[in-house]
């Protein structure tokens, strides 16, 4: 049974990687000519800058710290808890940290058993004995575990899902108890010393999992290179707005003085926050039609039968009359279900889900995150007593 589960997971991971590789290769061929023309137009200086960009990006990608490395996908069993995790994460104020909850569950149980968050010994367990695996209701385990993680994130003063320093502290607090947040903060040495001190204090052989943050973060995508600058970044920014009611923040930002249907304003707002409109990756539009035209004109359009990826823009046709009337962002897709973050869904920012190829889906815009490599090269061109000139180079394949 175990071998079947491992094979299933390996096939699932290989399929996702193959799809992404094929997409990258197609785009590479399509844009090779444009890259050569850009280098030719800029001469030798441009060539040097591009090479530095490539070397910098490669070094960052391959030699970054543990949060930069490619993450390991969680089990399908963990993915099956996505709706329950989202429910309780939203209820306890950490809606943007659903991926972290999944990573914790993966480390604790792989999504298996009646206590997938291993929350039986948590102080938030009020229904079952406080002994290992005493919780018999998986949903209640998720509820208790999310509450405990929410408290740890608050104690660690985490700012967002990519605040890796504080997330490490929060994770160690989830494993040890939040006392570590008050006793020096997180470093590998502090975690080890705290464990030894508690073990000695209680007369135990050991206390907690010393490298617990590293164990969890191998399953956490938002700290790695791709999620830090591409599709994961925009998903994270959008998720932080879940729960907003009325959308005034977004339609007034766009320039409207009274309420409008604001789903497209919301998409434009978080696109600007990530710098993707300025970079030409995404359009600024208050209407669905303008966004669709942008992606179709750039040959970045897919029909409803497409299986999307995180960061793709999803368009809807509620009436089935061929006239699109709503837009959102794909948070994830497991091959069967598309999970989204939408503004103006019952006048609220919230998560929703739909079957892949569902009749209400009109199609998808596919932003070219992989090919908008924004590489800052700081060059002092002119220096005097009062000012510096800084050159910021944007290289788009």
From TrEMBL:
<dbReference type="InterPro" id="IPR038765">
    <property type="entry name" value="Papain-like_cys_pep_sf"/>
</dbReference>
<feature type="domain" description="Peptidase C51">
    <location>
        <begin position="259"/>
        <end position="344"/>
    </location>
</feature>
<dbReference type="InterPro" id="IPR007921">
    <property type="entry name" value="CHAP_dom"/>
</dbReference>
<dbReference type="InterPro" id="IPR047194">
    <property type="entry name" value="CwlT-like_lysozyme"/>
</dbReference>
<feature type="domain" description="CwlT-like lysozyme">
    <location>
        <begin position="77"/>
        <end position="227"/>
    </location>
</feature>
<keyword id="KW-0812">Transmembrane</keyword>
<dbReference type="Pfam" id="PF13702">
    <property type="entry name" value="Lysozyme_like"/>
</dbReference>
<keyword id="KW-0472">Membrane</keyword>
<dbReference type="Pfam" id="PF05257">
    <property type="entry name" value="CHAP"/>
</dbReference>
<dbReference type="InterPro" id="IPR023346">
    <property type="entry name" value="Lysozyme-like_dom_sf"/>
</dbReference>
<protein>
    <submittedName>
        <fullName>Uncharacterized protein</fullName>
    </submittedName>
</protein>
<keyword id="KW-1133">Transmembrane helix</keyword>
<feature type="transmembrane region" description="Helical">
    <location>
        <begin position="34"/>
        <end position="63"/>
    </location>
</feature>
């Amino acid at each position: 049974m175990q071998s079947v589960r491992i094979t299933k997971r390996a096939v699932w991971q290989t399929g996702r990687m193959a799809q992404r590789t094929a997409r990258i290769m197609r785009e590479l061929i399509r844009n090779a000519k444009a890259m050569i023309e850009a280098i030719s137009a800029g001469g030798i200086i441009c060539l040097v800058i591009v090479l530095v960009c490539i070397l910098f990006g490669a070094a960052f990608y391959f030699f970054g710290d543990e949060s930069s490395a490619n993450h390991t996908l969680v089990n399908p069993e963990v993915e099956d808890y996505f709706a329950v995790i989202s429910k309780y994460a939203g209820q306890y104020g950490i809606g943007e940290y659903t991926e972290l909850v999944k990573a914790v569950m993966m480390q604790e149980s792989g999504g298996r058993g009646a206590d997938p968050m291993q929350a039986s010994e948590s102080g938030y367990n009020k229904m079952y004995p406080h002994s290992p695996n005493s919780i018999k209701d998986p949903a209640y385990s998720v509820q208790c575990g999310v509450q405990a993680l929410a408290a740890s994130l608050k104690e660690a003063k985490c700012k967002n899902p990519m605040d890796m320093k504080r997330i490490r502290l929060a994770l160690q607090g989830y494993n040890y108890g939040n006392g570590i947040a008050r006793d020096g903060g997180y470093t590998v040495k502090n975690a080890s010393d705290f464990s030894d001190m508690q073990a000695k204090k209680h007369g135990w052989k050991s206390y907690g999992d010393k490298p617990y943050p590293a164990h969890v973060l191998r399953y956490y995508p938002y700290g790695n290179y791709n999620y830090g600058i591409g599709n994961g970044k925009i998903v994270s920014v959008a998720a932080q707005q879940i729960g907003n009611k009325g959308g005034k923040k977004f339609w007034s930002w766009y320039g409207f003085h009274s309420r409008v249907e604001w789903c497209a304003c919301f998409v434009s707002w978080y696109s600007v926050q990530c710098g993707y409109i300025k970079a030409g990756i995404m359009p600024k539009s208050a209407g669905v039609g303008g966004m669709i035209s942008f992606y179709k004109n750039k040959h970045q359009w897919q029909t409803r039968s497409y299986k999307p990826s995180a960061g793709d823009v999803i368009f809807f046709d509620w009436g089935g009359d061929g006239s699109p009337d709503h837009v959102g962002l794909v948070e994830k897709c497991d091959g069967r279900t598309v999970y989204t973050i939408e503004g103006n869904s019952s006048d609220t920012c919230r998560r929703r889900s739909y079957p892949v190829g569902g009749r209400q889906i009109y199609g998808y815009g596919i932003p070219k995150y992989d090919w908008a490599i924004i590489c800052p090269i700081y060059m002092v061109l002119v220096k005097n007593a009062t000012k510096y000139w800084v050159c910021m180079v944007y290289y788009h394949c």
